[in-house]
Amino acid sequence: MSDLGHVLVLAGGLSYEREVSLRSGRRVSDVLRAGGIDVQVRDTDAGLVPAVLADPPDVVFVTLHGGSGEDGAIRSVLELLSLPYVGATPDACRIAYDKPTAKTVVRSVGVPTPEAVVLPKETFHDLGASAVLARIIERLGLPLFVKPSRGGSALGGSIVRKADELPAAMVGCFAYGDTALIERYVEGVEVAVSVIDLGDGPEALPPVEIVADEGVYDYSARYTAGHTEFFAPARLRPEVADACAELAVTAHRALGLRDLSRTDMIVDADGRPHFLEVNVAPGMTETSLLPMAVEAAGKDLGAICHRLLQVARDRR
Question: 186, 296, 289: which is closest to 229 by C-alpha?
């Protein structure tokens, strides 16, 4: 019999990443049940609060991606209900979820991150899109990477290698958010480093190298088996892998995160990693990067999830 009591896994939600969240929730609940833990999976609908008030769980594992799952909103509700949960606090989530803000914070502690311009959709309407886009290219050069300032799973993100591709990239970006983050694109090796804290401080798991078939790690490449090749651990020189781990732990601490996170970065030709963004609720699906890193470290995902729940419960 588990020492955790009744565990609630939150999955689903109404963001564009709903299906991914449901898959993450199933994966986490499966590995926990395999360890003899009493698990219930619930969506974040109108029945959630009455249900947890009627039968309060002992601890909650949040596997919600995008929107309220990562912007702190659902965690604020969990705080109101006095329910312990795995993951960052609402305040930390709000900072990390906003990509421009997260870049500013990590840059302030010496972490390199690509130069960028942040512009809301209204700016293009008010000032004229063509004039603004021309100045962006003049300032940042090409290639660029365009993505919404909030959200995950690369939805609305695209590489711009030629000037005439930028307008379409902006339109695609604004389909998923009202503010665009336009970054100077750094050519190199795409790497993700997961960080876990099992009670003794944050530690980086082995970096995972990402090689997408089409050259872009977009939504399809992330969640369709066979569309991306992964190397866990990444094919990096030891000193470069150490630099990636240090960057991820530094970002985790600077942003005030706890329990787990995943930092996405690019390693340039000189072996220098550049921060791109951080995820406060890393995916747990069969093709997600944190479970790959756990396996590469020779650890058991179920045991780690169990320990994270213990840490969260003990905080109460």
Answer: 289
